[in-house]
Design goal:
Blueprint lengths: L5 H8 L6 E2 L1 H11 L7 E8 L12 E5 L10 E4 L5 H6 L4 E3 L1 H9 L6 E4 L4 H4 L3 H4 L17 H9 L2 E5 L5 E8 L4 H17 L10 E8 L4 E4 L3
Parallel strand pairs: 1-10, 4-5, 4-6
Antiparallel strand pairs: 2-8, 2-9, 3-7, 9-10
């Protein structure tokens, strides 16, 4: 028989899958159950309505600037022309390069979490889509990662810009902070996140766009928010 840890047993006692909680109550519960030795993230998961009234599915992919940041440490790479390398280095990006960075990308041996490209370099990066695409690193103008304003793009990522996209089943998730964040900051981030997703609702969708909302920590229980 598989043995369960003391932490698992403690979490199991607080697991109430069929109960819906008020938002403020959930924040307290989630932080209380974030008992690992590392600082857990506080995450929100949504189930959205993908079905359009005239058939077919939609996809939601955008970026959200959290008011209080995400608390997540990002390693940003910038692909740019040689004459913009110095600007990119001053912007705070950890990895900067031109053709030399393309060689690193081609090898698949890189550890950056975000990639920004200038428009002029996009013609060269296309063939590396098979490497970058599966990792969610392909620069995209709609996400602000294809731009000549390198300084702003790097700053946005460093100060809480998060990318969200749904999977094929309509699930969508994002971090809204860390356990160390105050409840007020987590609530502000949460409300901004939900309001932004609601604004992305297409005109073809009838009824509620967001079906279910859950909040959890990295290694904790998931709690369902009571519908208003």
């Amino acid at each position: 028989m598989k043995k369960r840890s003391k932490r698992y047993k403690a979490l199991f006692k607080t697991d109430e899958k069929n109960k819906k909680f008020e938002l403020k109550e959930i924040i307290d519960l989630v932080k209380k159950n974030a008992t690992t030795k590392f600082e857990e993230s506080i995450d929100v998961s949504l189930r959205i309505n993908l079905k359009q009234s005239k058939g077919g599915d939609l996809s939601l992919r955008t970026v959200i600037k959290l008011p209080n940041g995400s608390g997540k440490k990002s390693t940003v790479a910038v692909l740019c022309e040689p004459d913009k390398v110095e600007e990119a280095k001053k912007s705070g990006a950890e990895v900067v390069g031109s053709d030399d960075l393309l060689e690193i990308i081609s090898s698949g041996k890189f550890n950056f979490t975000n990639l920004i490209s200038t428009p002029a370099m996009m013609g060269k990066i296309g063939k590396h889509g098979k490497v970058l695409g599966p990792k969610g690193l392909m620069p995209n103008p709609k996400l602000g990662t294809v731009t000549n304003n390198i300084t702003k793009a790097v700053k946005d990522i460093k100060t809480g810009l998060v990318e969200i996209r749904n999977d094929k089943d309509g699930n969508l998730a994002s971090t809204i902070g860390r356990k160390s964040f105050s409840n007020d900051k987590l609530l502000e981030n949460y409300k901004h996140f939900i309001d932004t997703v609601k604004k992305e609702k297409p005109d073809t969708i009838k009824g509620e766009f967001i079906k279910n909302i859950f909040i959890t920590s990295t290694m904790g229980n998931s709690y369902k928010i009571k519908a208003k």
